[in-house]
Structures are given as structure tokens and as C-alpha cells.
Amino acid sequence: MLTPQGARIAIGPAGWSYPDWEGFIYPRVKPRGFHEAAYLAQFFDTIEINTSFYNPPRAEVARSWIEKVRHNPEFKFTAKLWKRFTHERSANLQDEAAFKKGLEPLLNSGRLGALLLQFPWSFKNTRENHEYLSGLFMQFMEYPLVLEVRHSSWNQPQIFDWLRGMGVGFCNIDQPVIGKSLHPTEHVTTPVGYVRLHGRNYEHWFTTEEHPEERYNYLYSTEELGAWAERTANIARNADITFVITNNHFEAKAVANAFQLTAMLKHEPVRVPEQLCERYPQLSAITGPATHAPEPQQGNLQFEPTHS
Questions:
Q1: DSSP labels for the chain?
Q2: How confident is the model at residue 286 (pLDDT cuts 50, 70, 90)?
Q3: Whole-model pTM?
């Protein structure tokens, strides 16, 4: 089955502001005017906004992000919904208005590819939670919504039929599969496909100790990424655009794996910053000058072009 003409895949990391990325992907001494998102947008066509999970973005900051990625006309951000709506579930109408005001520049400029409603493992498929989601979908119906759940109780055909009817996408995740955790999937319920790779750090996945960043300290192997490249291709065949977000951010492992996935799906070398290759020598196998084949080799999968 060939991918529908015009289907696109955009791969990129979750977030861009991590002190431990300095010396891995960012220079330790940054030139004047350096901005992390602007730098990454030279290589990737999406980044997931993490800060919106903790607080509503300010509209003026969102406008500055748009300006930072102006050199890549195909670039789209995705954003996580404020945790007050998902994890705390205590939001009021003022919270809704504040969040929407902050996201308005991204939505109006066409730079927002998806709004991710991320829920924790403890959020199970119950009538109460189903009703809560229905209300949340209506609150944010003007956005391209994608739902991320982590408990296997949601992995049912009737749930995907319901999401299709509501016009809400489904986030296919990779996570440590512990107990009733959701296994890898490749579901598509709207024209927006979505994949998030969290890593497989079983030891620290549920940690609440002193160094919570350790849960994302995981570098995917080529074999593990190959399975997700295949799933992503299947998702893209049934979506207009598919976002693949690497969230294993510790020491820029998310960036390294994002480059590897891009090379796998494009079937060609990719440009990788030299210092990242030094940190992760396995990237030397995929590096090369910026090349643009007229059409990728797998079906009609089309990537956003790489910009320099």
C-alpha cells in the first residue's frame, strides 16, 4: 500500500532548553544571538514545546519562537497542554483563556502542528475519565488535538472509533512496558499522526528520587529505531503529516536518535553536527552532505526539506 501523495513526516526532539545539551549539540560558548530552537530548526522540521506543560506560554514569547524558525518555512511546533488540565485537572476558565492567549500566535501563524494532551499512566479508561476527556476535547476543539495515554486499558477499537468521531489524534508511544503499560502501537485517527519515544530506562521510569532526569537517560539502538521507522512509515501512509518526537533528552540522546530515524526513513545520509558525532560515534554511519533525492525510496513518503 503506497503512502498517499503529500504525506509528510517531521522528526524532532521534545524541548530545546537543556543545560546538559551544551557540548553535545550546542556549543559551550554560544555566539551572540544564538538561540537553541533556531539552531535545531536548521536540521529538524519540528520541536515539541515542553514549557507549555508547566505554565501557559506568553504570547510575546511565542511570537519570538516563530521568528527564530523563520528560516525554515516548513517548520511546525507541537505543544503540550498545561498540566493543570491533564495531571492536576484543576483548571478553570481563566486558565483556559490564559493558555489559549499564549498559543494564539502559533495557531494563527500556521506554525502549530498539534496540541498534545498528555496523561500519566494512572489515567485509566474509566467512565469518569472518558467524560473528562470529552469535555476537554470540546474546550480545545479549535486546535489539532492529539491524545497521549500510557495505560493499556485505552487500547481498544471503540476508543479509536470515538477519537475519530471527535477529530482527535492518537499518540503512539514507546515507553518501558511494565505491568499494564501501553505497548507500541501504530494507530491513526485523524490526518495528524503522532509518535513519542520516551526511552526504555526501566530502572528509573517511575523514579521520584533526586535525579528524575535519569528516566530519560536512554539511547535507542539501531534495531530498536528500525522497528519504529517501520511503524512510522505505516502511520504516515494514513496521515497527512506525522510528527515523531524523541523525548529521551538526557545528554542530547533525543537529538542523536532523531537524526538516526531521519536517515532511516529518508534512506540517505543526513547532516549531523560534528560535536554530536564525537559524543555518539555511531552517528558517523549516517552522516553526509545535505542531499535531496527527488523522492524517498519507501513508497511516496515525503519529508519536509532540510534547511541550512
A1: -PPPTT-EEEEEEB-S--GGGBTTTB-SSPPTT--HHHHHTTT-SEEEE-GGGTSPPPHHHHHHHHHHTTT-TT-EEEEEPPHHHHTS----HHHHHHHHHHHHHHHHTT-EEEEEEE--TT--S-HHHHHHHHHHHHHTTTS-EEEE--BGGG--HHHHHHHHHHT-EEEEEE----TTBPPP-----SSEEEEEE----TTTTT--SS-GGGGG-----HHHHHHHHHHHHHHHTT-SEEEEEE---GGGHHHHHHHHHHHHHHTS-B---HHHHHHSGGGGGTB-S----SS-SSTT-EEPPP--
A2: very high
A3: 0.90
